[in-house]
Design goal:
Length: 476
């Protein structure tokens, strides 16, 4: 579904199952209970002074998807809208509608998911499906660029059914580790209640906490324009909600070329790992914002998205150490983003010590896996600090180049056989010049890994030239 082309828009948040939940038929219920469920998923349909961009018909973005990368634990993809689909007729299995040009705005939606650690293979499935533990982390980045001047009255992000009315659920808003507002949904007893409205400014967060684990715990951190979450209750006891970009008077007039940006980072925990009250939430927030004992020995932590560990690499490498997470905090899989890398060069994560469940490279020491890079030269990975006494990782480019136009080279580093538990690996190191001019560069190893024997060399590659420096046990 992430790669589907057409009237789809990006996912909003992923909810993890409880471990080993059993099986249901295709389309059956999963082992999770979100506090709200979307009817319309993130299709931007701004309401102008002339009404919705699609008029009275259901409006969808016709989009072309692109996977930016997908490595073992992180997926990052983008949807680019190239028109509108106004659907006059649809059912759950099909629809017919013309694709029309969007004369008001261009839209992109980038979705990044940090996966869980794996616990094992589903014992009652097909032998290849795994199940995991800990939270999902999801980055949502939506950007609207207006093609002409417009006055925007409303821009919904999501709408749907609110499931938590009458339940033992807290709705909390805050900034940093400070809780600014708490709504106890059990206090909204009147079936015709207007519910509540909560505005989440840039740098603030919104959390849903289930006192008895009836719903998945969810935490949303805002790094974009202010967002507003409003919900109300109907006479049947169920509810509706709207999650929308809040547009103050000074932001309702948009000039040609102006952008409207939505940036959210979402955490969602399985029902067996709930955050039940504001005190537990405060502990988790303190840890996410400033993980106990986190040490960055290479690279520098920088301000960026709230609740995301952002590090600028030092000479194309970052090194992080973190002790085991305190046991009085809900287990947190910490999302990390490393910037300052080159998308033309292979990147990887060398785990000197740590635990990663039962992935192919296993729990333990001195293991390596490749990292995907986005076009801006950034790598993403989760840290599973709750799983090991000391997690120690090196992330970046194992092999780098310097010299005039050296950044234009392609550097490919492949673990033909990955190192593990002190056993050396077998490696391939190849450099290619894709340009139409010769390039002279210094090629060097950026950090040591078992079995990687190449250290440094100076080479001049002609246009289109390729040089292999190491392949298995053969050193060129």
């Amino acid at each position: 579904m992430r790669m589907g082309r057409g009237p789809l828009w990006g996912s909003f948040i992923s909810y993890p199952n409880v471990p080993n939940p059993g099986r249901t038929w295709d389309g059956g219920p999963g082992a999770f209970s979100p506090p709200f469920t979307p009817n319309n998923v993130a299709h931007p349909n701004p309401v102008t002074e002339n009404g919705p961009v699609g008029g009275d018909l259901p409006t969808f973005m016709n989009q072309v998807p692109q996977v930016l990368f997908s490595d073992e634990l992180v997926y990052r993809g983008i949807f680019r809208a190239d028109g509108l689909i106004l659907i006059p007729h649809a059912n759950p299995w099909g629809a017919y509608a013309p694709i029309l040009p969007n004369e008001l705005f261009d839209a992109t939606y980038t979705w990044t998911e940090f996966n869980q650690y794996s616990i094992g293979v589903m014992p009652n499935a097909n032998g290849y499906e795994w199940y995991g533990g800990g939270n999902f982390s999801t980055m949502i980045e939506q950007e609207l660029t207006f093609k002409k001047a417009a006055t925007i009255k409303e821009l919904r992000m999501l709408s749907g059914q609110f499931m938590a009315f009458g339940q033992s659920v807290y709705l909390a808003r805050g900034e940093g580790t400070k809780i600014l507002e708490i709504i106890d949904l059990e206090d909204i007893a009147n079936p015709l209640s207007q519910g509540a409205r909560v505005t989440v400014a840039k740098g603030q967060w919104l959390a849903f906490l289930s006192k008895d684990a009836a719903f998945n715990t969810m935490l949303l951190s805002n790094h974009g324009d202010p967002m507003r979450f409003s919900f109300s209750k109907n006479s049947q006891g169920s509810g509706e909600y709207v999650f929308e970009t809040e547009l103050p008077p000074e932001r309702r007039e948009f000039a040609e070329g102006e952008k409207l940006v939505t940036n959210l980072l979402a955490f969602s925990w399985p029902k067996n790992e709930p955050i039940r009250n504001p005190e537990e939430l405060e502990k988790a927030l303190k840890y996410i914002l400033s993980p106990t004992g986190l040490e960055i020995t290479r690279g520098k932590r920088t301000d960026g998205w709230p609740l995301l560990i952002e590090v600028i690499a030092d000479r194309f490498v970052a090194e992080l150490l973190i002790p085991r997470e305190p046991k009085d905090i809900v287990p947190v899989n910490l999302p990390v983003r490393i910037s300052g890398l080159n998308p033309r060069w292979s990147a990887g994560l060398f785990q000197i010590s740590g635990e990663n469940g039962l992935e192919y490279y296993g729990p333990g020491r001195e293991v390596f896996r490749p990292l995907g890079l986005d076009p801006e030269g950034r790598a993403y990975f989760p840290l599973f600090a709750s799983r090991y006494d000391m997690t120690h990782v090196v992330a970046g480019h194992p092999i780098v180049a310097s010299g005039t136009n050296a950044d234009q080279l392609f550097i490919q580093v492949i673990a033909l056989k990955g190192p593990q538990e002190g056993q050396p690996g077998l490696w391939n190191v190849t450099v290619n010049n894709p340009t139409d001019q010769p390039i002279t560069a210094e090629i060097r190893r950026n950090w040591e890994m078992p079995g990687l024997t190449f250290q440094e060399a100076k080479v001049t590659l002609p246009p289109g030239g390729v040089k292999t420096f190491e392949h298995g046990e053969e050193i060129k």
